[in-house]
Amino acid sequence: MEILCFTLSGKTAFFKKPEVNTYVYFTYGNIHKIALLGIFGAILGYGGHTQKYNETGKTKKLVEGCPDFYENLRGLNVSVVPNAPSGFIRKKIQVFNNSVGYASKEQGGNLIVKEQWLEEPSWEIYVLLDCDMAIGLCKAIQGKSCTYIPYLGKNDHFADITSVRVTKADKLSCGIAEISSLFPRESGVAQASGDSWDDEQATFRYEEKLPIQLDPWTNNYVLQSFLYTDAVISWENQKVYCIDGKNIMFF
Description:
The structure is a single chain. This protein is mainly beta. Helix content is about 10%, strand content about 40%. The chain is built from three helices and 18 strands.
């Protein structure tokens, strides 16, 4: 199987958590599949959330269904490996003014925004080249061609795509090994006695609920627990490939 590999990075990133909408806007700790598909959609020229509104005179009507990028790319098999110690990327609260005039009803129309940004984020991204859509994406990335500028969650945070390559890898059958990428928690079971996550051989464990799907009715995120650890786990019927000595699980 051929696999597209590249490094995705930037100076900052912001993948907004929708649960909190006042005082401070928080970010997810790592890039998630929906944001990654959004970057791919920008490269290939698919519409996003704003394209779901049809303009009729001065009014806008919401079109049912998910955004074009998600409808076309959700079948891609991807994997994410954080280039950060133990998977934890530094965060910092940034405070800035939004003075476009309509951002706030306060006098002067100035809105003070507080956002939590990821600092110097970097990931190794893998895409299985198992369909025409994935192959088309691979050609666009290799050719350094994009329709829209890709960014990391918001247009304040430009994305850098480097070290692009295509490699061949063999799929691993069900087994027991370390997984070097983020993976859905229910996809693997840690191998240890007693408390499954108290394995003395494991030096770190990163866990976070990340978006994995869009709800087709509300377009809200569907969350799933993801793990990143050096613990030995077992798995069955998962897409795991050995790439450059790393066991990478796709989702």
